[in-house]
Amino acid sequence: GNELEQATNYADLAVNSDRYNPAALTNKGNTVFTNGDCEKAAEFYKEALRNDSLCTEALYNLGLAYKKLNRIDEALDCFLKLHAILPNSAQVLYQLASIYQIMKDPNQAIEWLLQLISVVPTDPHVLSMLGNLYDAEGDKSQAFHYYCESYRYFPSNIEVIEWLGAYYID
Predict the structure, then answer these.
(1) Among 45, 127, 129, 154, which is most exposed with the fewest C-beta within 10 angstroms?
(2) Which one GO biological process term can you cite for this protein (predicted)?
(3) 19 with 91, same domain?
(4) Are 34 and 97 found together in one domain?
(5) Per residue in 57-110, pLDDT tens?
(6) How many domains does one find in the chain?
(7) First-to-last C-alpha distance (Å) of the chain
(8) Reduced to 3 states, what is the DSSP secondary structure of residue 24?
(9) CB 76 within 8 A of CB 99
(10) Which CATH number covers residue 96?
(11) CA distances for 55 relative to 16, 59, 126, 129, 147, angstroms
């Protein structure tokens, strides 16, 4: 708690000294978010964006706050706007895929994950997510391909090992 308390005090000082500074507002939002008040954090992020519509940190964190509040359409909107500004951001691509998974839209999730592996081709977690989605869609050969790739970069993932084992038994 002590570091968060200090961060909160500094964030308050910064916002009080310059009410319109997007970085100060974003930092204040971050301390509130860390304390678990996503609703209030979202207000600080929105205020930061009113002062600088291209403040990518505020936009990203607003998307995360909406996601945590289960306001999925609004979260999606934030990450799509961010994608237009930062088309090769691995974090943004990951969030978009994650949101489409939450929305039960595996085809869209797959599309975003495929874009993501063009940016981070050796991420075993992303590769196994693709394997999982293709498997759920009934595309065993694509699932096999991505699970094998995931295994190649991280051979200790038990879920991947179990899936590959079951695949070879079938």
Answers:
(1) 154
(2) intraciliary transport
(3) no
(4) no
(5) 999 999 999 999 999 999 999 999 999 999 999 999 999 999 999 999 999 999
(6) 2
(7) 52
(8) helix
(9) yes
(10) 1.25.40.10
(11) 19, 6, 27, 30, 37
Asked whether residue 75 is assigned to any structural domain, the reply reads: no
**């939450």: which residue's tokens?**
102
Residue 68 amino acid letter: K
Q: Do residues 110 and 49 both lie within one domain?
A: no
Tokens of 140: 């065993």
Q: Are residues 125 and 166 in the same domain?
A: yes
* Two tokens, residue 35: 């304390």
Whole-angstrom distance, CA of residue 88 vs CA of residue 93 = 8
**Three-class SS of residue 54?**
coil
Residue (of 117, 129, 113, 142) closest to 167 by Cα position: 142
Same domain assignment for residues 46 and 2: yes
Tokens 């994650």 locate to 98
The residue segments making up the domain with residue 127 are 87-170
96 and 134 share one domain? yes
Distance CA 63, CA 116 (A): 18
What is the rounded CA–CA span in Å between residue 48 and residue 25?
A: 5
